[in-house]
Amino acid sequence: MAIGGKKKEIYLAAARLFRDKGYQASSMRQLAKEVNLEPSSLYSHISNKQELLAQICLGEAEMYVNKMKSIMSECDDVLEILRQISYFHVETALDDPISATVFSDEWKHLEEPNLGRFRNLRKEYESKIRYIIARGTEEGRLIDTDSMVLFQTFLSSFKWIYLWNKPGREVDKEALQRDITHVILRGLKK
Amino acid sequence: MAIGGKKKEIYLAAARLFRDKGYQASSMRQLAKEVNLEPSSLYSHISNKQELLAQICLGEAEMYVNKMKSIMSECDDVLEILRQISYFHVETALDDPISATVFSDEWKHLEEPNLGRFRNLRKEYESKIRYIIARGTEEGRLIDTDSMVLFQTFLSSFKWIYLWNKPGREVDKEALQRDITHVILRGLKK
DNA sequence: TTTACGAATGAACGTTCGTTAGTAAAGTTC
DNA sequence: GAACTTTACTAACGAACGTTCATTCGTAAA
How large is the average pLDDT for residues B56-62? Predict the structure, then answer.
């Protein structure tokens, strides 16, 4: 059997290509070469280049939204929620750094209607975090600094992991989760 | 005099284009349109597309390196140095968000030898900060967490400002400098 | 042996790309 | 006002792009 292997292979190669060269600089001819096909043969498996980017970005975005819902439904403590988000960000950046990079850096090359869908998902995700942070300040658990600064600083603190995590590097995931979360929450906690 | 007015105009338009669409998706034809020239006329002022990106990225990188040297030669206190770096990052992100974005997101499309030059400058800049942070931990001024985590978290904390700073937004620069620096250094200080 | 079908192919389409060549006008210097 | 430089133009180049098309291959069921 072993069906569907080729389609998956194409998606993985595309994600790697998009990460390394960027979406626009990645050609279907190069992608075909990486999966040992002729360019035209790609279209037996996928419908077009844009679909590749959309699947990667929207898939990743949905994962974040779902995780966020799950965390918030299971837990009510602001600091514990932020801790879990932090752990999740570190985990995804380490486990699938390729998709994480594409999601983070290449989404702007999405076309409508995918771009709109992506923005909605991201907005949904971010507004939940903003709400948590605002609540944290109200409850006196977080410092009383501009909530936009707290929110943005919190989220951008994870933006180096997937870039820094080169293939050869050995990483202790739990240590990294603990250290990053420690530094970030130290900055936010009252 | 007022020489080079057109050249400057081309560079500014190029930076804006690179930021909005990315380097690869920015065409010389579009750039020409933005400065009211025919595409070929651009080459009366610049030598090629790559040079535009190189000037922007390398110019920005040199600015950071020079500022870093200046800060470190004037000051010896670790926390004060980090504070000044933080203030400088916020300032550049607000004053020239376009160049800051291109520098941060599009450098990977540099070709040799510009790519090598860029990496050297960035390495020079980053190693100075790493040294400061390592010293800070040794001196007991910063927390005793993995120095890579401290370094990367510190630097990535500025990566949202130039993206968030939309044209219409009113920003109180000094307040932002104070707040961001406060949050970051709270996380790092012992 | 025939029928059916997904997978893969080579060739080609129309478009866009960065860039060059050649040239004419405008500005500057003597 | 002649000589020279700078700026801008039209036209075109070769290369690469994403994608389509008709066709062939390989396999497995009928």
Answer: 96
